[in-house]
Design a protein that fits this description.
Blueprint (H helix, E strand, L loop, with lengths): L17 E8 L4 E8 L5 E10 L5 H13 L11 H12 L4 H5 L3 E8 L2 E9 L9 E12 L4 H14 L2
Antiparallel strand pairs: 1-2, 1-4, 2-3, 4-5, 5-6
Amino acid sequence: MGILNIFKNRRRPGQDIVLEAAATLYPDKILIHTIDRVKEGFGISSTNITILPTNIDPEALGSVTRNHLNLTKHNMPIPKDYKQHYREFLKKAGFRSGKEHHSNALHLSIVQRQNQIVISATKNGGYTGKESGFLDLDNAKFSISADTDDSNIGNMLRKGWSKCK
């Protein structure tokens, strides 16, 4: 997993703006972080992280998530040293290793494009192995209007975590 934390935001007129974040539920915390978009069109996790208690109310959870979506940077260069970026992410998130990052994690991908927010549940494939990482699950996506209130976003995240494997 590459991590990027450069604060430039260059958008071209007419470009489809994609906002992206991730929300991961652990037994003892919730980790929300921003995904920045590189020039080549894919996203890379940033070290822009918020750690929340698991019992946070839906409105506050939705508000933090919306904030992270709005912090998405665009047209970033691909990092030269993915491992170093990942180490920075782990440190900021309070993890000692990639294995700890994946342990007991229920991970959601959150993408806002135009006026739709899509929340995708994943399968936790662990840190190493053939199917490592957080893998999208078929039929485990929820779409809501970006105009919805923060409480609804928080409730949809809880619903999404219930679909994770």
